[in-house]
Amino acid sequence: MSTRVLPRPAPPRALPFRRTLVPVVVLAVLLAAFAPGSARRALAGPPAAAVVPAMVSAYGDTGGTLAVALTAQVERPDGLSGRALDARDMELSYVTADNGPAAVRPFPTASIVKLFVAEEVLHRVRTGQLSLEPRDWRLLQDMIRSSDDPAVSELWDRFGGTQMVRDVAARYGLKGTRPPADPTQWGETITTARDLARFLALLPTVAAPADATTLLVWMRTATPVAADGFDQRFGVFGTAPGRPAVKQGWMCCLGGNRHLHSVSVVGTRVVVLLSEVPRSVGYDRATAALTAAAAALPPPPTG
To answer: How confident is the model over 217-275, as pLDDT tens digits?
Structure first.
């Protein structure tokens, strides 16, 4: 059965910036400093106490909710087996700055679930559970690079999408991630900012190195315009220097709201932005607000 995708209005033509006071925005900022080395250095810069208010102020008044999670990717220690790196057993030392419950607030993933689908398919191929044809590889790449919906719908139906979500959540220790209540609605998969930060942070250690590299390369070569014509250059994609590894998501109108998300890996820094705004807030305004929040994050150090 094909996955039904909620209809979307015409894509926005521009991403203007708006800076206003923020009365109803919920901000969750999760800062994780893992093992010493490049991951810890990636989080150097202004303290979270200074960064958080800047991002909140820049997001502006949308009448909605913003969740932000920042962390750093974990490096794979030499000589450890895959079992030793199992996320369910891995102890992560967090240095946090957040406003409590917002870090685990559930959001529908929209197209961000495509990261889970791609990682699980790559894992099944690596472990001999699947064999893919050249067309399947094109579907995976298009699903990530241009956020192609028919591609993920086909893979979701063929390979058991709800079980893929469960398997990824188990392997990465994602406590707030679960399949959609309606198994045909992949965009209604539930996750949290904290879970997405954990998933991207642990990707180099839980996934096979080649699979992690493949997924990050697809993210790093995201197309400016999505397969459905939506301009993907918002959030981190619209602000981060160089070629960040990004995945964008947008959906309307579950529960009368629009959902607009941007997740990325910039160097070794992981940035997660999840947002929900009332349907009355158009995509132009919603993308501008998310881009402004991302622009308020200082660039990672080059040294």
So the answer is: 999 999 999 999 999 999 999 899 889 999 999 999 999 999 999 999 998 888 899 99
> CA 294, 272, 149: angle at the middle one, nearest 5?
105
Cβ neighbours of 126 (radius 10 Å): 14
Contacts of 280 (CB under 8 A, 6+ apart): none
Instruction: Delineate the domains of the chain, giving CATH numbers in brackets.
Output: 38-295 (3.40.710.10)
Q: Quote the CA–CA distance of 48 and 44 in Å, as a whole number.
A: 10
Alpha helices in 71-128 (DSSP H): 113-126
CA distances from 291 to 78, 154, 193, 248 (A): 38, 31, 17, 12
DSSP state of 137: H
The DSSP string of 241-297 is SS--EEEEEEEE-GGGEEEEEEEEEETTEEEEEEEEEETTS-HHHHHHHHHHHHHTS
Is the link from the previous residue into 253 a cis peptide, with omega within 30 of 0? yes
How far apart are the C-alpha atoms of 187 and 152, rounded to whole Å?
10
102 vs 25: CA distance, rounded Å: 10
Chain position carrying tokens 């990707």? 203
The pTM for the full model equals 0.84
